[in-house]
């Protein structure tokens, strides 16, 4: 049986072969009605475009590159990454792009993998997740003039295309919720200090304390990698102090789970003895005991918008602003107790 060609599809749809080609390429000037008619003809005839040949002609891979700057252990332990990937894949599939993904255990591996993808012409553009301060990968891509989008933001290059939350405002809201609930001794568990997002969330926490003239206690600010086991030990030294915090803002839900486990194991009750606000609003935060108050940063939408932003750049669309901000919201559950002034001696 002879294979179906683009001319067969055009004949059945009543359009020209060039119109069929434009529909396959998602050309913006093709009307919705025409595109639907052509796709119906393709389905009726069982026609599948030869994307490999198309890529060779156009010199486009129709592939987005993504290097996750974390070990495989962390990728599987923290649901943030699977949810952000779900958003990226949903957008890439809609736009008929593939996603080439790799992980790196350290900055050197990350640089090597990005260089291999770019110079090997394996991808049309790169996505960078949670950039570091003075990130050498960003410098490399800028030097190569290679398209990329950051999920997060660059301190040194604020105008590079990026999709992000306002993490300063988000951490401010989380901290101020505790202040409004009567807490005055509030600790903060940060992410890795080399990440820009960690610095932004710390700044939001500091801003909230400053606004109500609460002192910043350096010993109550704890840096932690974003793995559950690191939360187990993050607060043990702080909680042994006579004037320990009555509440914590924790910059990742997974670390907050580990911290709660440590606190409960040491005899504390949540929220009766210690209140906790997390970050990310992963599914498990609603199922924890007690259900955890957390900041919903729209993880799926972060992933989706990052892929969309890069594809628009690759397709030559006019992008109104280089930076896209995904809104956040505080999800109030049961891990925060109202603290009256008589309880502040806890």
From TrEMBL:
The keyword DNA-binding applies. Residues 5-48 form the HTH cro/C1-type domain. Pfam families: LacI, Peripla_BP_3. PROSITE patterns: HTH_CROC1 (PS50943), HTH_LACI_1 (PS00356), HTH_LACI_2 (PS50932). InterPro entries: Cro/C1-type_HTH, HTH_LacI, LacI/GalR-like_sensor, Lambda_DNA-bd_dom_sf, Peripla_BP_I. Keywords: DNA-binding, Transcription, Transcription regulation. It comes from the Bacteria. Residues 4-58 form the HTH lacI-type domain. This is LacI family transcriptional regulator. It comes from Laceyella sediminis.
């Amino acid at each position: 049986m002879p294979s179906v060609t683009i001319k067969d599809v055009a004949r059945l749809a009543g359009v020209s072969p060039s119109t069929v080609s434009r529909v396959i390429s998602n050309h913006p000037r093709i009307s919705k009605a025409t595109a639907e008619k052509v796709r119906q003809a393709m389905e009726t005839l069982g026609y599948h475009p030869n994307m490999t040949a198309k890529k060779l002609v156009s010199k486009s891979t129709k592939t987005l590159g993504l290097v996750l700057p974390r070990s495989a252990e962390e990728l599987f332990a923290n649901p943030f990454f699977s949810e952000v990937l779900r958003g990226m894949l949903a957008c890439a599939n809609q736009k008929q792009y593939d996603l080439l993904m790799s992980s790196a255990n350290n900055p050197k591996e990350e640089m090597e993998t990005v260089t291999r993808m770019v110079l090997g012409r394996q991808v049309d553009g790169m996505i960078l997740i949670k950039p570091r301060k003075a990130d050498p990968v960003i410098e490399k891509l800028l030097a190569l003039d290679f398209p990329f989008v950051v999920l997060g933001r660059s301190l040194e290059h604020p105008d590079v295309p990026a999709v992000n939350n306002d993490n300063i405002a988000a951490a401010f809201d989380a901290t101020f919720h505790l202040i409004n609930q009567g807490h005055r001794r509030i600790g903060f568990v940060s992410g890795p200090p080399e990440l820009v997002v960690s610095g932004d969330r710390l700044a939001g926490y500091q801003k909230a304390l400053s606004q109500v003239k609460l002192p910043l206690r350096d010993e109550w600010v704890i840096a932690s990698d974003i793995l559950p086991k690191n939360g187990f030990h993050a607060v043990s030294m702080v909680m042994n102090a006579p004037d320990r915090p009555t509440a914590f803002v924790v910059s990742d839900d997974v670390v907050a789970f580990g911290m709660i486990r440590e606190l409960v194991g040491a005899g504390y009750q949540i929220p009766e003895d210690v209140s906790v606000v997390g970050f990310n609003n992963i599914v498990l935060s609603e199922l924890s005991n007690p259900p955890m108050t957390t900041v919903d940063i729209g993880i799926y939408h972060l992933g989706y918008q990052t892929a969309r932003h890069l594809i628009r750049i690759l397709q030559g669309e006019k992008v109104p602003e280089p930076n896209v901000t995904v809104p956040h919201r505080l999800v109030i559950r049961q891990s925060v107790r109202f603290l009256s002034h008589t309880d502040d001696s806890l």
